[in-house]
Amino acid sequence: MNACCGEKKRKDETCATLDSIPKSVCSATVCAQDGAPPHYGNFVREFLDTTFPQRWIGRGAVMAWLPRSSDITPLDFYLCRYVKQHVYSEHINDINHLKQRTTNVIHSVTSDVFTRVWEELDYRLDLCWATNGAHLELR
């Protein structure tokens, strides 16, 4: 997807979601996005500036996206690594095999796993708070 076409669809979906959230909650919401090229077009930044004025974190924002900050993003610090580790634990024969392995691994994630992920996130946030956001080497 490019910044114009793909983000138009995302904008429509985001607006529909935001409309369902009470204004008091939405006005205190800070949006974080990673600034990957498809997420960085003028169209995207204008939408973020309008929807989250002075309240979005990312490349080109008032609040910059922290470099290498995936340490506090559960999808990055856990799920992507977990899926990759398990999907590629055996030889992949073709794209259909890859899709099936990925689907099976995602379906194998249990609610107990999510509980542990949230506990880990809580631990990581406590470390960030205790060190005033300093660089950390996490286990």
Give structural notes.
There is one protein chain. The chain has 2 domains: 15-65, no CATH class; 66-138, no CATH class. The protein is 55% helix and 3% strand. It contains 6 helices and 2 strands; from the N terminus they run H-H-E-H-E-H-H-H. It has a two-stranded parallel ribbon with strand order 1-2. Helix 3 links the parallel strand 1 (31-32) and strand 2 (56-57). Helix 4 (74-87) crosses helix 5 (95-107). The longest helix is centred in the last third of the chain and has 20 residues, at 111-130. InterPro entries: RNaseH_sf (IPR036397). GO terms for molecular function: nucleic acid binding.
Instruction: Give me the oligomer status.
Output: single chain
Coarse morphology = globular
How much strand? under 5%
Question: Count of helical segments?
Answer: 6
Across the major sheet, the strand order is 1-2
Number of domain units: 2
Q: Termini distance?
A: 35 Å
Summarize this entry quickly.
55% of the residues lie in helices and 3% in strands. It is globular.
Topology at a glance:
Elements: H1 5-19, H2 23-26, E1 31-32, H3 42-51, E2 56-57, H4 74-87, H5 95-107, H6 111-130
Parallel strand pairs: 1-2
Organism: Araneus ventricosus
Protein name: Tc1-like transposase DDE domain-containing protein
GO molecular function: nucleic acid binding
